[in-house]
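Final report, closing paragraph on structural work. Over the funding period we assembled a curated collection of sequence-structure pairs, and we close with a single example.
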Amino acid sequence: MTDEFAAQLFIASDNIFCKKQANAFSSEELVSYLNSKDISEIEIIGVDGNSCIKESAKGAINSGFRVSILLSCIGVVNIPRFEKTKEDLKKNRCNVKVKILELRNA
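Its predicted structure, as stored:
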């Protein structure tokens, strides 16, 4: 593995999948691992709901998983754009719940 983690980070498992694209589910290794564990539902959290969150949610749905996004656990820089993203995700069978944590430039 070429990626390094912060020394303070608690790593709970040796199952680490490095994301190289916006859609985390473009990794066949990740999808195969989840399928081997009979995982059928994914909850996605992350930094930007308009980019990696959106693309990973769509990728997970296309890979056959049920997907939930807990809005209090994602960041959104462009809220008006995210309102459209949220509607698009709901149309694609993504369960979007709770409220948005807004990121502001410091």
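Residues 79-91 form the longest helix (13 residues). The chain is about 30% helix and 20% strand. We thank the funder for supporting this effort.
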